[in-house]
Design a protein that fits this description.
mainly alpha; Ferritin
C-alpha cells in the first residue's frame, strides 16, 4: 500500500510528465522543420508512456485523478516557442529534462532487507528506465540547442576537413607561457619600483616563478584528471544503457542524426547499422551523444602538468634574467626589454590561432603588457616611498 509521501511524489511526477507531453506537442506545432517536428512528437510519445505509469500507480492506490492544468513555467515556455520558434526554448527544455532524470534517481527506494516487496523492485525498475530515458532526452535537447536547424557550419568544417586550427596544444602552450611571462614580469616590475635591492628582487622573482609554475601545473593536473574521470563515468553509464535499453539508444541516435539533417528513414537506417556492431556501438554513442572521443581519454595528467610547469617557467624566466647581471635602472630597462621581446613573440604565436596579422597581434600584446608593467611599477614606487 502506497504511503502519503509516495502518493505525493507520484502526483508531482504525473503533473511533470503531462506538462512535458503538452510542451513537446506545442513545440512540434511551432516547428516549421518537419524533421525536427517529428523529433518532438516522438519525444512526446515517450513521455506519454511515463504518464501511463503514474496514472496506473495512482489508480492502484485509489487516488482521484484531477484534470490536467499546465503550470506557469510550461505556459511561459510554450508562449515563447509559439512566438519565437521551438528552437528558442530548447536549452530550457534540456535543463528540465536533466532535472527530471535527477528527480527519478533520488526517488528510488533504499536497499531493503532480504525478501523485500517485489512491488518496490518493480517501481525502482520503472524509475531507472524513465531516468535513463529522461537523460537521453536531455542529451538530445542539448544537441538540438547547438544544431537544431540541421548541420552546423562547424560540423561541415569538421566533415570536410576545413578550418583546422590544429590548435588545442598550441593554444595551451601559448597561454601557459603568457601567464608565466606576464605574472612574473608584473611582479618584478612592482618590486623594482619599490626600490628593492638586487638580491631581494631575484629572490622575489624566483619565488613568484616557482609558485606560479607549481600552481599552473596543479591546476592542469586537476583539470585533465577530472575531465578523464568525468568522461569515463559518462561512457560507463552509456555502456549500461546500451545493454539495458538498446532500442531506446538506437532511437536516440536516430534523433540526433535527424537533427543533423537526415530524413527520418535514413537516420533510423544509419543508427541501426552503426549499433549492429557491438564493438563499435559504444564508440559511436560516445562520439555522437556525449561528444567524447574515447581515443583521447588516455592523455597523461602528469604529462600535462609537467608541460604547463615548463611553459610557465619558460615565460616567467625572461624578465628575471637581466637581474643576474645588471642592477639599478639599467636592470629595470633590460627586464622591460626582455618582457617586451617575450610579449612580441607570444603575440606572433597567437596570430597563428586567430588568423590576424602577426605584427598587429604582437604590437597589441607588447603595448598592453608594458602598460600593465608601468602601472605596477608606479604602484610599487608609491608604496616604496610611503614605507621609506
Amino acid at each position: 500500500m502506497a504511503n502519503t509521501q509516495e502518493v505525493k511524489e507520484w502526483k508531482a511526477s504525473l503533473q511533470a510528465e503531462r506538462e512535458a507531453v503538452w510542451l513537446y506537442d506545442s513545440m512540434a506545432d511551432a516547428e516549421p522543420n518537419p524533421d525536427l517536428s517529428g523529433i518532438y512528437r516522438r519525444l512526446a510519445d515517450t513521455e506519454r508512456k511515463h504518464v501511463k505509469v503514474f496514472e496506473t500507480r495512482l489508480a492502484g492506490a485509489k487516488v482521484e485523478d484531477r484534470p490536467f492544468k499546465p503550470g506557469f513555467r510550461s505556459r511561459v515556455i510554450r508562449m515563447v516557442a509559439k512566438r519565437n520558434g521551438a528552437q528558442a526554448v530548447v536549452p530550457l527544455v534540456a535543463a528540465i529534462e536533466a532535472q527530471a532524470a535527477n528527480s527519478y534517481a533520488s526517488s528510488k527506494t533504499a536497499p531493503g532487507p532480504a525478501g523485500a516487496s517485489s512491488e518496490e523492485a518493480k517501481i525502482d525498475g520503472q524509475l531507472e528506465e524513465m531516468e535513463q530515458e529522461e537523460r537521453s532526452h536531455a542529451r538530445v535537447f542539448g544537441y538540438l540547442s547547438t544544431s537544431g536547424k540541421g548541420v552546423e557550419g562547424a560540423d561541415l568544417a569538421r566533415f570536410e576537413g576545413r578550418h583546422r586550427s590544429g590548435g588545442n596544444a598550441l593554444r595551451a602552450g601559448i597561454l601557459g607561457a603568457n601567464d608565466g611571462l606576464v605574472s612574473v614580469f608584473l611582479l618584478v616590475m612592482g618590486v623594482a619600483g619599490a626600490g628593492v635591492a638586487q638580491k631581494q628582487l631575484l629572490i622575489t622573482g624566483g619565488a613568484g616563478l616557482i609558485a606560479g609554475a607549481l600552481s599552473m601545473a596543479l591546476g592542469e593536473w586537476l583539470s585533465v584528471q577530472s575531465a578523464r574521470e568525468l568522461y569515463q563515468n559518462q561512457i560507463a553509464i552509456e555502456s549500461k544503457e546500451l545493454e539495458t535499453l538498446p532500442e531506446e539508444e538506437k532511437q536516440e541516435l536516430a534523433l540526433i542524426y535527424q537533427a543533423k539533417g537526415l530524413d527520418a528513414e535514413s537516420a533510423r537506417s544509419l543508427a541501426d547499422k552503426l549499433l549492429s556492431d557491438k564493438a563499435s556501438a559504444l564508440d559511436t554513442l560516445a562520439r555522437e551523444e556525449l561528444g567524447i572521443n574515447p581515443e583521447e581519454l588516455g592523455g597523461s595528467a602528469w604529462e600535462a602538468a609537467l608541460t604547463s610547469f615548463l611553459l610557465f617557467a619558460l615565460g616567467g624566466i625572461l624578465p628575471i634574467i637581466p637581474y643576474f647581471f645588471i642592477t639599478g635602472w639599467q636592470g629595470i630597462f633590460a627586464s622591460a626589454g626582455m618582457g617586451a621581446i617575450g610579449l612580441f613573440a607570444l603575440g606572433a604565436a597567437s596570430s597563428m590561432l586567430t588568423g590576424t596579422r602577426f605584427w598587429k597581434s604582437s604590437i597589441r600584446q607588447v603595448v598592453i603588457g608594458l602598460a600593465a608593467a608601468a602601472v605596477t611599477f608606479g604602484i610599487g614606487r608609491l608604496v616604496g616611498s610611503a614605507i621609506g
